[in-house]
Amino acid sequence: MQTERGKLTVGWLVVEDLAMVVAMVLLPTWVHIRTQVVNGEAISVLQMQDAGLAVALTLGKVALFALIMLLAGKRVVSWLLHRVVHMGSRELFRLAVLAIALGVAYAASAFFDISVALGALFAGLIMAESELSQQAANETLPLRDAFAVLFFVSVGMLFDPMILLRNPWPLIATVGIILVLRSLISAGLLKLFGQSRETTATVTASRAQIGEFSFILAGLGLQFGLLPEEANDLILGGAIISIVLSPLMFAIFDRIGKKAQAVGAVRLAAPTQAPPKRVVLVGYGRVGSLIGKALDEAQATYSVIEDREDLVELLNSSGVAVIAGNAISQDTMERAGIAQADVMFVTVPNGFEAGRIVELARTLNPKIKVYARAHSDAEVEHLRSFGADLIVSGEQEIADAMIENAAAVIPRRIVSSA
Ligand code: AMP
């Protein structure tokens, strides 16, 4: 997400999803027209006007809903989330996020005849505008994981493996369309827009599979009798195979992209210079802020992960790169640039929470040097087992400093006789 390629990839996928939304909205109207054509009924100018009106009405409703959401919804939701977050209860915040998401989705379908899925998408769009969006996203992360699992379970249940034997050639053709045709179109377009070979490779690889939206569209087609059952099986089969092959596609295209990069590097032959150390600082409270000041003085490149809203605002206003959210989330960690970092300071006060943060950082970047904060021997052990390089126990350090100072003040005799 932090590279140009990543942004292009995600942007492309989002635009595809939005195009799907238009398809979902217009499909019922299209079915209406088609039925008449298939039944041999002459479509009069009047009926065409009807159909045109129906399309205009559908699009009008979507536009009205979008307008209301983006103008009023945004303010109301932002206000509501702030009110709730200031009550200080995580559970309440989580409930509020869920209630907003489901409420907007329901309102979309109840009052605007818009699908629940599209309503939920708008709920997400307006919540993304709030400064609390990262926190809201974190609260829904467990749900997202649960839904992702459910998604794959349902795909597995819907899939009829016999299609592999019954219809191997159409299935191969389907997979070919997804892997080859889509890739060719992407690569062609990217080249047309003058993108580098590396970017082209990544984006192309990311598009060589289809996912849940294709099932929704196929499901609608089935429901309206536009699509035979067999075609639905082919789409499911094609999706499963393309998703399974996705890592392979990435590996292949990565190699193609890397080759281009290596050639470029030789051509440029830039003078080598030791790259500056990059630091991720987790927590900007009493401990973290002191480390931050030291990093400022050293003119180090660093980003902060902090989940307290006031601190995030403070950091934002002083121009420090800050990611709002819980460091336990992989998404937050990646946005903070953990993969490129050399050093991480974990200053969160709860050593066990810190353990999970260290563990995650290690999996995302095995080479990173990790410094962590602890308060008890149990926490020190815990952090060590998760791979922290240096663990500083607050209480131990305080005691050491006191004893060291006391040695100068308290007569030796008393200390040694104790
Ligand atoms: P202090 O104990 O004063 O050094 O403050 C610790 C800081 O770490 C606070 O500002 C918390 O908001 C922050 N913090 C605690 N846990 C997390 C976490 N899991 N992710 C991000 N920030 C955190």
pLDDT average, as an integer?
84
Q: How much helical structure, as a percent, in the residues? A: over 70%
Query: What is the percentage of strand-forming residues?
Result: 5-15%
Which runs of at least 5 residues are low in confidence (pLDDT < 50)?
Answer: 264-273
CA distance, first residue to last residue: 60 Å
Number of helices: 17
Shape: elongated
Small-molecule binders here are: adenosine monophosphate
Number of strands: 6
In CATH, the homologous superfamily of one domain goes by the name: NAD(P)-binding Rossmann-like Domain
Strand order across the largest sheet: 3-2-1-4-5-6
Structural class: alpha/beta
Q: For the report, how would you describe the main beta sheet?
A: 6 strands, parallel
What Rg do the Cα atoms give? 28 Å
State the CATH architecture of one domain: 3-Layer(aba) Sandwich
Assigned CATH class of one domain: Alpha Beta
* Element order: H for helix, E for strand: HHHHHHHHHHEHEHEHEHEHEHH
